[in-house]
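Example 9 (inverse folding). The structure is encoded as follows.
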């Protein structure tokens, strides 16, 4: 294989492939290189394995990331003033540390539901899990406080 052939392989075949550290693009790239160099060996290590001071990350594909970005939920608060949680039965009749905390989470969520912040960003800002943030999102959509 001469230099021009290497160049064309890189430019026309390998360069256009979407690659992350782990994922389909990297596997495809390695297979193409193996076809050109018969002595080339491909070794794989399972995700989660420890290698020296590093843990092998889970497989990640650029195409999946783009699809997830396209599905990104960006809630927008419909009400600019008091959301009247009591009218929607989102305030509890009982006063406890738990119910006050839950009501504060609703208010915090509504504060960041500005139509620009994703659910992931809101979860980070109000310091709760994404799973819990999605539950709050569903509840607030059901009660017509956000869209």
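The amino acid assigned to each position is listed next.
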């Amino acid at each position: 294989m001469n230099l021009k052939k290497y160049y064309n392989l890189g430019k026309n075949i390998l360069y256009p492939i979407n690659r992350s550290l782990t994922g389909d693009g990297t596997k495809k790239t390695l297979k193409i290189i193996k076809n050109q160099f018969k002595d080339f060996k491909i070794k794989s290590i399972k995700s989660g394995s420890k290698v020296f001071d590093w843990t092998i990350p889970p497989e990640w594909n650029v195409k999946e990331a783009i699809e997830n970005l396209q599905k990104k939920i960006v809630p927008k608060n419909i009400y600019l003033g008091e959301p009247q949680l009591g009218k929607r039965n989102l305030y509890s009749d009982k006063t406890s540390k738990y119910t006050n905390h839950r009501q504060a989470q609703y208010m915090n969520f509504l504060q960041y539901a500005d139509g620009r912040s994703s659910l992931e960003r809101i979860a980070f800002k109000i310091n709760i899990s994404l799973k819990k943030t999605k539950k709050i999102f569903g509840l607030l959509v059901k009660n017509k406080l956000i869209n």
